Amino acid sequence: ADYAWRGIMIDAGRRFVPVDTLKNIIDTAAAVKMNVLHLHASDMCRFGVESKKYPNLTSSLTGIHAGFYTQDDIKDLVEYAANAGVRLVPEFDVPGHSRGFRPLMGDGVEFCRGDSASDNQLYNDAAGNTYGVIKDVLQEMSTLFPDEVFNIGCDETQVVNECSLNSTFAFERKLFKEIAGTFKKTPSGWEEAAFDAGAATPNTIVDAWARHTAADVIAHGYR
């Protein structure tokens, strides 16, 4: 069978993976005929790519969370991967796994548990402030990665405090549509986007990982 997507995921959203190490992984992937590097660039505790619009996303990273890719690093990695026949597909995880956005609370980003330092789920406030900032950041990120696929995670969200299933659904559905309509990309996310929040659109690529299989995804009409 011809498997068009033969990938490896690197979780640089929890710990920084140096550029030279990523290049080594790209070389190794190409050598064994893998063709996608899924770069999980933001996660629970950090946002790992430089934003020119919101530089404090990365300037605030310290200790074990330190290290990030500059926009020039990403340009270099995209070109390096392309020359090896490898696609670089980004993932920026929202609305769960989003503690890395805490530096943007002063810009209007809200969380389900308010000021709890351990909170990592974004609150889709009625005024749309959180969504507006996140969309702004992700639109900037989408311009750095030429690949057609743009992954926004959507895994492990919870109904907690003001964060209802409806508010999470609305946030994710709007963002999936925005990726297709405004970013001109194919949206992608983990299985919860389809099976929990139900926010995945028909053109969304759904990644199975825990309680569902690829067969489940296809059976429900998703890619």
Keywords:
223 residues; alpha/beta; 6-stranded parallel sheet; 7 helices; 32% helix; globular
The N- to C-terminal Cα distance equals: 18 Å
Proportion of residues in helical segments: 25-40%
Strand order of the largest sheet: 1-2-3-4-5-6
Number-wise, the strands total 6
Give me the secondary-structure category: alpha/beta
Could you give the order of the helices and strands? Answer: EHEHHEHEHEHEH
Percent of residues in β-strands: 5-15%
CA radius of gyration is 17 Å
Overall spatial form: globular
Unreliable segments (pLDDT under 50, ≥5 consecutive)?
Answer: none
The main sheet comes to: 6 strands, parallel
Number of DSSP helical runs = 7
Counting copies of identical and different chains, the oligomeric state is single chain
Overall pLDDT confidence: 96
Please characterize this protein's 3D structure.
By secondary structure, the protein is an alpha/beta fold. Helices cover 32% and strands 15% of the residues. The longest helix is centred in the C-terminal third of the chain and has 17 residues. The model has no long low-confidence stretch (mean pLDDT 96).
